[in-house]
Amino acid sequence: MSVLADHTTALRLHRGRRLRRTPALRALVRETRLDPAMLVAPLFVRPGHGVREEIGSMPGQHRLSVDELGLEAERLLATGVQSVLLFGLPETKDADGSGAWADDGIVQSAITELRRQAGEEIAILADVCLCEYTSHGHCGVLRGSSVDNDETVRLLARTAVSLAEAGADIVAPSAMMDGQVAAIRAGLDAAGLPEIAILAYAAKHASAFYGPFREAADSAPAFGDRRSYQMDAANGREALREMAADVAEGADMLLVKPALPALDLIAAARAQTDVPVAAYQVSGEYSAICAAAERGWLDRRAAALETLAAMARAGAGFIVTYFAAEAAGWLREEGGGR
User: Among residues 257, 270, 308, 314, which one is catalytic?
Assistant: First the structure.
């Protein structure tokens, strides 16, 4: 009887370690795989010539002049990264953010140059917001001390059309104005650009993790904050309503930002909709890993890849990350994916 009992116990014991013994076995049964083609590199474009200016709070990241973009595109494509998300630092700013929709604006010029240098090898995503272009740093036109939602939406649509006409494949409204996706879709269609896709920053929380970006893009608000239009990070059900509204308005893809503090929302978005879902590993997430790694508290490579895998595991089909080029290189070293 004791032999039979021992045999029964052995049958019931789950031995997960059998499939963890070697790197090859772990790779064979890995459920979530990263690929360089699912990574999107954010790029900051500024005036000037021959400029590659390091961003102090984001080690390894730079503000680039337009003429430097071709080399950057070559570097990214060589790693397997095929997509970029553009942000602009204009020469001048005004109360309405008119540089956002100028035909010769900084991002419009960047798109034209990238398209000339890389053709259709690279997918160009363009952020649609006014914060980098307004003298007050808010994401829309002010009426008194508040952002005028409807006037801002009109200008966001104008900006999206301008970026699409310059050659952007995808416009990505991030201002968190009510009705912005519907207005942009209508504007693109009216301009004869129905093929241009919209990536909606559908769940963009007011977050402590945006600080380094505001240095990089020179976009900190001159007064107050953005909590009246960006979402409260504590509200999950509201985020789902925002996502559903953006899909109903014509969004082709949804973006959750910041990523790691909102893995539950990435998973919920993936379960709720059949459009592509993306995650944005924002500047503060990147800088925190870099700072800890510089002090020897974390392994930069391991921490970056682990967080990216968590985002993909939650349901992100692609990820905007400042680690894009590095991570792609690491993945290629590991045999093309992770």
Answer: 257
- The pTM (predicted TM-score) of the whole model is 0.93
pLDDT at residue 155 greater than cutoff 70: yes
Instruction: Select 32-333's CATH number: 1.10.760.10, 3.20.20.70, 3.30.930.10, 3.40.50.150.
Output: 3.20.20.70
Tokens for 41, please give them. Answer: 């590199």
Cα–Cα distances in angstroms (integers) from residue 246 to residues 9, 198, 202, 204, in the given order = 53, 10, 7, 12
Tokens of 167: 């050659």
**pLDDT of amino acid 277:** 98
Candidates 158, 204, 270, 338; catalytic one: 204
The DSSP letter of residue 132 is T
pLDDT digit string, tens, across residues 274-316 = 999 999 999 999 999 999 999 999 999 999 999 999 999 999 9
Question: Are residues 160 and 106 in contact, defined by beta-carbon separation less than 8 angstroms?
Answer: no
Ordered by start, the domain boundaries in the chain are 32-333
Strands 142-143 and 146-147: antiparallel
Q: What is the rounded distance in angstroms from the CA atom of residue 181 to the CA atom of residue 175?
A: 10
Selection from 65, 54, 106 nearest residue 322 by Cα: 54
Phi, psi of 61 (to 5 degrees): -110, 150
Is position 93 annotated as part of the catalytic site? no
